[in-house]
Structure formats: C-alpha cells, structure tokens
C-alpha cells in the first residue's frame, strides 16, 4: 500500500458535506485512517455512502459516548482481519483504537484524548496512554499506527510552545511518553522525513487567525516500525489553500511508501552443470 493518510474529520457527517467526499474521490491514498467520526456505524456509512459506492471499504469503531471519538479505516481493499481496541477493559468501547491487517502489514487508527491539565480528563488520558503504550511496545511484525495523538512532541511541533508549557498536549509526561515509543523502535515518519523544521503543522484552531498565521500544532502523526519507516519516501500535510476551503480543523497527513524490496538470491548450479547455469531467484528480503 504505497500511500497511507490520516485525518481527524471533526465529525464525519459535517465533514462529508464540506469536502471530505471530494477529497476521498481525489486522493492517492490506499488506506485512510480517520478519527473523531462522532457517529454510529450506520451514520458513518450513510455519510460516506458515495465513497463506499465508489469502492472504498470501511472498518469503524463507533464510540460508546454519543458525539465523541469514533475511529475508522477506509481502504481500497478489504482487510484480512479487523480488531477493535487493544485489550483494555476500560477503553474497549471508547471508539479510540482500531486496527486492520493487509497482507503482512497491520494498520491502526488511533485517537488519543485531548485531555485537560490538572483534571480527571487528563488522568483518563494518562491511563489510556499507559495501556496503549504497553500494547504498542509489545507488538511484533510490520506495523503502522496513525492518527490524532493530541501530543506535540517537541518545540518544533507547535508554533506557540512557550505559551503552552503547562497545557495538555505539551506536558512533560506526555512528551516523555512519545520518547518511550521512539526508544522502543517506532519512527515518527513525518519528522523523519522533515528533520529540523517547524511543523509541518496539521491542526489549527478555528478561533482567531490561527490558520492564516499558521499558528498550528503537529499532533496528527504516522508512526511505524523500523522496516516500514525505511521505505517511507515522502510525507506531506494537505493543508487547505484557504480558511474557507477547510472541511476540518485538522488537515490530512499523507505518507508515501516504496513497495517492499525483494533482493535477488543466487543459487549455485548443481555439480556438473553447464558453467553459468546458476539460478537467480527473488525472495523477500
């Protein structure tokens, strides 16, 4: 799957009417991870009906809390298997995690809580992070987990970092958690391909002139295991040209991956064979 995108749609029914459907019709993505659908399975299918009629396959984890959360995976092909949640009893029905298997790669869509520093909402976010982190670091195999992490990892990941030192999304404990994922072998693909630059931001508040001034946060990210990351060749934030053309307060983040390389293996010719009769086979590297 050469292209994987992720986007928080900020309500799938509203986004569908503003431009999400047009974007799905035009995108190169083979898999699109969506977050914050804020809808039931039936409502999501109704909102995305034109896209589904055009061939997109939908996997969705609806939220137990009406009007909150909800994650999905849209794909060109039907996944081999789909799993909701990551084994947590507290968050099993929260609509914040979904994964699907495609050939030898698993793709997950995640929506981490926004939190609120010093409140029970932040405590809930930390519990979710702890359980999710344990699950992700114990995984094996080729894996892509994309979504709205609601954490800006470094000062380069939000414009006004000095004014947000005590804000949820940029707290030391949250940022340290991302450090732990990276130490466990995950790669932030967008940052890997765009080192040493501010942004590229993926979320801008609807308030004030945040979008026009590019006063944003880079909280939508694609994390992969090392082998997958080595095949990432480009990454971009599909920022709308103007404020009026936005269909969410987030922009899609799209990563292009090269196909898995297969290295030639030379098998020596049997004893007595004609010189130069070696067989060249191709097998997975």
UniProtKB/TrEMBL annotation:
Record GO biological process: DNA repair
Keyword Magnesium attributed: yes
Segments traversing the membrane: none
Endonuclease/exonuclease/phosphatase domain segment(s): 6-250
Gene3D superfamilies the record matches: Endonuclease/exonuclease/phosphatase (3.60.10.10)
Site, as annotated: Interaction with DNA substrate: 250
Stored InterPro entries: AP_endonuc_1, Endo/exonu/phosph_ase_sf, Endo/exonuclease/phosphatase, ExoIII-like
Cofactor: binding details: Probably binds two magnesium or manganese ions per subunit.
Gene Ontology terms for molecular function: double-stranded DNA 3'-5' DNA exonuclease activity; metal ion binding
Cofactor: Mg(2+); Mn(2+)
UniProt-annotated binding residues for Mg(2+): 8, 36, 148, 150, 249-250
Record-linked CDD domains: Nape_like_AP-endo (cd10281)
Keywords: Hydrolase, Magnesium, Manganese, Metal-binding
Active site (catalytic residues): 111, 148 (proton donor/acceptor), 250 (proton acceptor)
Site feature location: Transition state stabilizer: 150
Site location (Important for catalytic activity): 220
Entry EC number(s): 3.1.11.2
NCBIfam families: exoDNase_III, xth
PANTHER family: EXODEOXYRIBONUCLEASE III
Protein family membership: Belongs to the DNA repair enzymes AP/ExoA family.
Protein's name in the database: Exodeoxyribonuclease III
């Amino acid at each position: 799957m050469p292209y994987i995108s992720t986007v928080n749609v900020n309500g799938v029914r509203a986004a569908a009417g503003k431009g999400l459907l047009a974007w799905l019709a035009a995108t190169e993505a083979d898999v699109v991870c969506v977050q914050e659908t804020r809808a039931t399975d039936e409502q999501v299918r109704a909102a995305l009906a034109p896209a589904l009629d055009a061939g997109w396959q939908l996997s969705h984890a609806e939220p137990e809390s009406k009007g909150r959360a909800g994650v999905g995976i849209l794909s060109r092909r039907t996944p081999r298997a789909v799993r909701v949640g990551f084994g947590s009893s507290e968050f099993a029905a929260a609509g914040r995690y979904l994964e699907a298997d495609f050939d030898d790669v698993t793709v997950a869509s995640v929506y981490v809580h926004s939190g609120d520093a010093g409140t029970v909402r932040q405590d809930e976010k930390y519990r979710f992070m702890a359980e999710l982190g344990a699950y992700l670091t114990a995984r094996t195999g080729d894996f892509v987990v994309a979504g709205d992490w609601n954490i800006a990892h470094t000062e380069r990941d939000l414009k006004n970092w000095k004014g947000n030192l005590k804000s949820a999304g940029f707290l030391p404990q949250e940022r340290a958690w991302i450090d732990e994922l990276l130490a466990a072998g995950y790669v932030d693909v967008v940052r890997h391909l765009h080192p040493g630059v501010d942004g590229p931001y993926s979320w801008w508040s609807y308030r004030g002139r945040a979008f026009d001034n590019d006063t944003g946060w880079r909280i939508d990210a694609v994390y992969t295991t090392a082998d997958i990351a080595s095949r990432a060749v480009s990454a971009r934030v599909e920022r709308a040209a103007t404020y009026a053309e936005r269909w969410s307060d987030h922009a899609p983040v799209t990563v292009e991956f090269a196909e898995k390389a297969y290295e030639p293996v030379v098998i020596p010719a049997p004893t007595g064979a004609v010189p130069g009769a070696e067989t060249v086979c191709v097998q997975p590297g």
